[in-house]
Write a structure and sequence with these properties.
289 residues, mainly alpha, 10 helices, 80% helix, globular, disordered N terminus
Length: 289
Amino acid sequence: MLQKVPGLKMGSKHIVISSLKESFLLIKKNKRIFLLIFVLQILFFSLVIMANAYYMPQILQSTQDVIDYAESLDINPQNVNIGILQQKNPLGDDPLRISRNYDLIMKNSIILLILIFLIFVVINGLVWYFASNISEKGKRLFSSKNLLSYLLWFFVVALVLSAFLYIFAYSLVNIAFSSYLSVKPINFVPLLLITAIAVYYIYISIPILDKIKLRSLAKSSFSTGTKNFIPIISSYLIILILIIACLFLIFYLIELNLFLLLIAVLLCIFVFAWSKIYFAVVVKKLSGL
């Protein structure tokens, strides 16, 4: 188990710095487990990219087909009336083409979302499990009971997280198409705040999923996140800044040097893997676990 630190008595700055040091010490002392986390993180991104590479071209092709067919229609009122008198369908020679492609878009989009969700639950769930328990040894760490129990509750948390993200994404789409449809746009700001607050507290619960009972999880996460806003938001910002820096480095090196680009990609994956360990350390200190 991680050494307990009286985090609530520490200053915010001390907690952030000591957790940074402790996260790297944990990696140094548990190289094999971190290597497993690193490989799982690579697998996660690889599977997500593969799923998108397979389904996104089909979605885009169906979308383009709808656009091309719609643009080919002559919807001038006068021509439409003449076409009706000549017993021609105003929607063209293949009126079901739009609905067929719409069905394909919805089908492929749903399959892609389900695949990404399952990849997130299983692979990213394992990453979070090992990152949160990196100091555990032997059978306890690789216990099938512990693994399945954690993944089960991670699935529940991921469902809640996905629901909030879906509502947020729906509001963006609603705003984007409100000028084309006779619908009143949803107020964006409240949904953005609700989603941000939900994500803030949900991620606090992930490192302690297997440390406290489920009925106390929400209360503990809320209490920890509310009382210790500064150190937690500071850790979020540190992680976010490092990830953004890595992504900028990758985009900068895309056309410059293939070897350096590979190094930058591996560095970015390292940051994603390390950040989970670091955040788990922060949350456990502040939770007194």
